[in-house]
Amino acid sequence: MKRVVSILLLLASLGSSAMAQSPITLNIALDKPTGKISPHMWGVFFEDINLGSDGGIYAELVKNRSFEFDQPWMGWKKLENGPEGTYLLLNDSKRKGNKRYLRINNAANLKLGLQNEGFRGMGVKAGAAYEFSVQYQSAAKGMKIHVELLDQQNKVIGAAELPLEPVGSWSEATVKFPVNQTTDKAKLNVWFTGAGTLDVDMLSLFPIDTWKGRPKGLRKDMVQMLADMKPGFIRFPGGCIVEGKDLANRFQWKKTVGPITERELIINRWNTEFSHRLTPDYFQTFGLGFYEYFLLAEDIGASPVPILNCGMACQFNTAELVPLDELDTYVQDALDLIEFANGTTDTKWGKLRADMGHPEPFHLKMLGVGNENWGPQYIERLAVFKKALNEKHPEIKIIASSGTDPEGDRFDFLNDQLRAMNINIIDEHYYRPPSWFLSSANRYDNYTRNGVKIFAGEYASHTTRPNGPGKSTWEAALSEAAFMTGLERNGDVVEMASYAPLFGHVDGWQWSPDLIWVDNLQVYGTPSYQVQKLYATNKGTNIVPIKRDGEFVAGKDSLYASAVFDAAAQQLIVKVVNYNSKPMKVNLDVDSKKKPAATAEKITLANANLNLSNSIEEPLNIRPKQNTVTSKGKTIVETFEPYSLTLIKLTVK
Q1: What's the catalysed reaction (predicted)?
Q2: Residue 467: pLDDT above 70?
Q3: Do 221 and 303 fall into the same domain?
Q4: 276: which of 2, 190, 319, 567 lies 20 to 30 Å off by Cα?
Q5: CA–CA–CA angle 408, 413, 414 (5° rounding)
Q6: Looking at the domain assignment, is residue 110 inside a domain?
Q7: Global confidence as pTM
Q8: What range does the domain containing 460 cover?
């Protein structure tokens, strides 16, 4: 009897194996596109969280450069004390934005000094040059500043001397100097010599080699990671910082433009948001302000998508509201922002843009009103904005929030209300486990094809949360890739999509996972970054149906697929996710009158270990591998690796 059972089990096993080897056929109706892909389909979402701006992409190395933190000496320490009254912090109410400055009284001609610790240290590179600058006034003749960069052993690795000319009003002095050693934990000494009284402010240190070589600009390697994605848009400045913990703490764009020295610093709302990741030194200096955001979008070929406060603070914090009859200031901010972005140079805000160095318009086409707001109070305020914007700027598309979750009573209420208002674009957010992303690949298959469009404005697959820089796993990324086949398949409904958050600093994060991780010197893309980049650089122009037995490929046998056609390159682009622990044989049958090339380009992201991550030490554990495949007539026979995202690009003429 045991022998009979063994034979039966063997036959069953062989039968199962034979079935597993039978290829699955996916039919691609190349000549029957179902819609257009938005030219800005795949983009990036920027928020100043996880030291994303100050201490991150904004390349300033000095923390609290203008003594404006709540604790004015945070980040600084005195190297020599001197007699009482040697160091005095003054607060001048007549100065715009930046009111505090330091007065140094050095009657005895002592060597006085300050040390700045930077943002978790300062990252400097051997052979690179750096520029120190300072705002100063009332310098007596013969006064000098000496600057030194020190490594972790307090060895001087770069130094310069800066003589100061006597001036009676605020002036800037600068000096450039090289560094002879690489370290991510340098600190800066600033020494003052010469007898007299000296007022100093905006003590600053930047690398010379910034993005596009702009003085006091952005960190080159971080911007390059964005540029490499070829994003269709960049959404800024957030996120929850748009709302603020209360309305006083909200993001106010007008305070982030104009001269850097006059921009008013505020505490970053992520400073104390999470008890497990308190960051008391996290502020927003707005060196990266709205002008710089628009410039960044232009630099990387992305459409600017600013989000503005709608008169509501974060509803998870204070939930403060502006009364409806006092909303005019908020609405005017939106109208003035459009003028700043698009207005001629003879308008007030267009002239400011020109004075800042950009007389040409930024071609703003979309504007978000509110972030993750909900309830009837949001709809009431949104209606006021919509009326004013539609009357004065009907060319601007309005993006509105559907709240914090992709389902439930809040979502249903907002979804119904926003559609009844005929809002242009609904912003949906989903932070969920991998299982949700896998099961939701068909989320938009039955959405109405007319009217309101969807912005998948924030999403990330969370295996655990919060975790840390090593936990942006391949499992999370692959589930996102599966979900994105559904976004792409429904590109006539889903106009835009962006992962969030964008950046995380390994020594200063509050939230994870994140798309790109940095320390003070290095940057790497997570597996999710590799997925996002693969989609964004291969978005195509037309949606092409790809089906299995007449149904969308959205999870049966753990296969997911989408297809697009790139009219400019005359290429069919197919994306297939195999979320199986075994390889899957598939026939891709192309139904078309066009003639396919004999070979196709193949790009694969794959690994059998779903827990694998990239890291500073191993940044390319998950990376694309390129190959070629051959077609048999109008069929490509391919075996997709276990746990893989595969892209196939076939030229057809």
Answers
A1: Hydrolysis of terminal non-reducing alpha-L-arabinofuranoside residues in alpha-L-arabinosides
A2: no
A3: yes
A4: 319
A5: 105
A6: yes
A7: 0.95
A8: 44-59+211-539
CATH number of the CATH domain containing 582? 2.60.40.1180
Q: Read off the tokens for 237.
A: 């400045």
Q: Which amino acid is at 42?
A: W
Average pLDDT over residues 176-185: 98
Give me the helix-helix angle, 376-392 and 328-342, nearest 10°. 40
Distances (CA, A) of 357 to 41, 219, 299, 351, 362: 29, 20, 14, 10, 12
Amino acid making up residue 197: T
Is 146 strand, coil or helix?
Answer: strand
CATH of the domain at 159: 2.60.120.260
Cβ neighbour number for residue 262 with a 10 Å cutoff: 12
DSSP three-state, residue 574: strand
> What number of other Cβ atoms are within 10 A of residue 187's Cβ?
19
Longest dimension (CA), the chain: 107
228 and 164 fall within a common domain = no
If asked whether residues 498 and 407 sit together in one domain, one would say yes
Examine the pLDDT at 4 and tell me if it is beyond 90: no
Buried b (16+ CB within 10 A) or exposed e, 291-306: bbbbbbbbbbebbbbb
141 occurs within a structural domain: yes
Residue pair 434/481 in contact (Cβ under 8 Å)? The answer is: no
239 and 323 belong to one structural domain: yes
Same domain, 171 and 246: no
CA distances, 374 to each of 379, 407, 411, 439 (Å): 8, 13, 8, 25
Indicate the number of domains in the chain.
Answer: 3
Other Cβ atoms less than 10 A from the Cβ of 282: the count is: 25
Residue type at 343 in one-letter notation: G
Proportion of the chain above pLDDT 90, given as a percent: 91
Joined together, the tokens standing for residue 572 give 């069919």
* Whether 372 and 488 share a structural domain: yes
7 C-beta neighbours (distance < 10 Å), count: 10
- Give the torsion sign (CA, 411, 413, 418, 420): positive
Based on the fold, state whether residues 383 and 259 are members of the same structural domain. Answer: yes
Q: Averaging pLDDT over each range in 507-511, 515-519, 629-633, which range is the top one? A: 515-519
Q: Which of 147, 174, 207 is the last residue of a domain?
A: 207
Q: Is 84 annotated in the active site? A: no
Catalytic site residue from 243, 372, 428, 488: 372
Say if 349 falls within a structural domain. yes
Q: Which residues of 325-359 are buried (b: 16+ CB within 10 A; e: fewer)?
A: eebeebbeebbbbbbbbbbeeeeebbbbbbebebe
Q: Which of 184, 207, 230 is the last residue of a domain?
A: 207
pLDDT at 5: 40
Beta strand 542-544 with 156-163 is unpaired
Cα 280 to Cα 278: distance, rounded to the nearest angstrom: 6
Distance CA 202, CA 555 (A): 56
Q: The sheet that has 196-207: what strands, in order across it?
A: 87-91, 100-106, 196-207, 129-137, 171-178
Does some domain include residue 10? no
Do 49 and 191 touch, CB atoms closer than 8 A? no
Cβ pair 367, 338 in contact under 8 A: yes
Cis peptide before 501, with omega less than 30 degrees from 0?
Answer: yes
CATH of residue 323's domain is: 3.20.20.80
CA distance 212 to 215: 9
